[in-house]
């Protein structure tokens, strides 16, 4: 079974609709992240959470919100989807042991199309 | 602003050759360095991490780190067509979130 799962894997929606993307992990990691990836722009951080009570904005948080329901679950919401939010969305997790490592493990991604 | 620079490529190498992928970074206090492989439409997969100056080898992959010159590289020996992918470099300071480069596209042709 996959350690980091995302649902849905593909979604087509219309402008103005509210969309929720879900991420679950069985790795036992405290840290979770949401990224979007657009052709030529690389990975851009939307939100991140270092534990259940911690939520932080990334570089492109406008138009998005998140919820950390449990250590294993981190959801991303688009309150009112717009076409330029069409992208590939990845959830990632990491653990931090205090030795400076912060290896991230990615879910399979959600391809979102906003018409 | 922390920057991680990679040549977008594509880098084209023949099967069996050594592919050399390079990455430079701007933040001198960076301590953790990662290489991810990403196939088209798929998620990034961690293939190497390196934390100290020098070389680190894992199978056909060797990561090289030079903190004084602020670059990290990835060598892929005996390149195979299945190595064709985009390779992402990521750099982090301590426990901070890694900053990703935009990736280098590698094509290994038979």
Largest sheet of chain A: 7 strands, mixed
| Helix amount of chain A | under 10%
Q: Which chain pair shows the most residues in contact?
A: A-B, 22 and 24 residues
Query: Termini distance of chain A?
Result: 33 Å
> What average pLDDT do the residues of chain B reach?
94
Straight-line distance between termini of chain B: 40 Å
Q: pLDDT below 50 for ≥5 consecutive residues: which ranges of chain B?
A: none
- Helix count of chain A equals 0
Unreliable runs of chain A: none
Strand content of chain B: over 45%
Shape verdict of chain B: globular
Q: Helix and strand succession of chain B? A: EEEEEEEEEEE
**Outline type of chain A:** globular
Question: Percent of residues of chain B in helical segments?
Answer: under 10%
Give Rg of chain A in angstroms: 14 Å
Please count the beta strands of chain A (DSSP E, at least 2 residues each).
Answer: 11
Sheet with most strands of chain B: 6 strands, mixed
Order of helices and strands of chain A: EEEEEEEEEEE
Alpha-beta classification of chain B? mainly beta
Enumerate how many helices of chain B there are, as a single number.
Answer: 0
Question: What value does the Rg of chain B take, in angstroms?
Answer: 13 Å
Task: Kindly describe this structure.
- The complex is a heterodimer of chains A (115) and B (110).
- By secondary structure, chain A is mainly beta.
- Chain A is 0% helix and 57% strand.
- Chain A has strands at residues 4-7, 10-13, 19-25, 31-38, 42-51, 54-57, 64-70, 73-78, 87-94, 104-106, 110-114.
- In chain A, the strands form 2 sheets. In chain A, strands 2, 4, 5, 6, 9, 10 and 11 form a 7-stranded mixed beta sheet that branches. A 4-stranded antiparallel beta sheet of chain A has the order 1-3-8-7, with no helix packed on it.
- Chain A is globular.
- Chain B has 110 residues and is mainly beta.
- Chain B contains no helices and 11 strands.
- In chain B, the strands form 2 sheets. In chain B, strands 2, 4, 5, 9, 10 and 11 form a 6-stranded mixed beta sheet that branches.
- In chain B, a hairpin with a 6-residue loop joins β9 (85-92) and β10 (99-100).
- At the A-B interface, β5 and β10 of A face β5 and β9 of B.
């Amino acid at each position: 079974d996959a350690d980091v799962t995302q649902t849905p894997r593909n979604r087509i929606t219309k402008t103005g609709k509210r969309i929720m993307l879900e991420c679950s992990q069985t790795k036992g990691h405290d840290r979770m992240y949401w990224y979007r990836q657009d052709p030529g722009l690389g990975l851009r951080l939307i939100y991140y959470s270092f534990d259940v009570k911690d939520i932080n904005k990334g570089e492109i948080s406008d138009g998005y919100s998140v919820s950390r329901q449990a250590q294993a679950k981190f959801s991303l919401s688009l309150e009112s989807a717009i076409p330029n939010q069409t992208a590939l969305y990845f959830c990632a997790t990491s653990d931090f042991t205090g030795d400076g490592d912060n290896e991230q493990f990615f879910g399979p991604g959600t391809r979102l199309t906003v018409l | 602003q922390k920057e991680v620079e990679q040549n977008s490529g594509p880098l084209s190498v023949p099967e069996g050759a050594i592919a050399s992928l390079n990455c430079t970074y701007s933040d001198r206090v960076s301590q953790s360095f990662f290489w991810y492989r990403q196939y088209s439409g798929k998620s990034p997969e961690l293939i190497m991490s390196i934390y100290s100056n020098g070389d680190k080898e894992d199978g056909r992959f060797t990561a090289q780190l030079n903190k004084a010159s602020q670059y990290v590289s990835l060598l892929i020996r005996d390149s195979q067509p299945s190595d064709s992918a985009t390779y992402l470099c990521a750099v982090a300071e301590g426990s901070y979130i890694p900053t990703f480069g935009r990736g280098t596209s590698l094509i290994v042709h038979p």
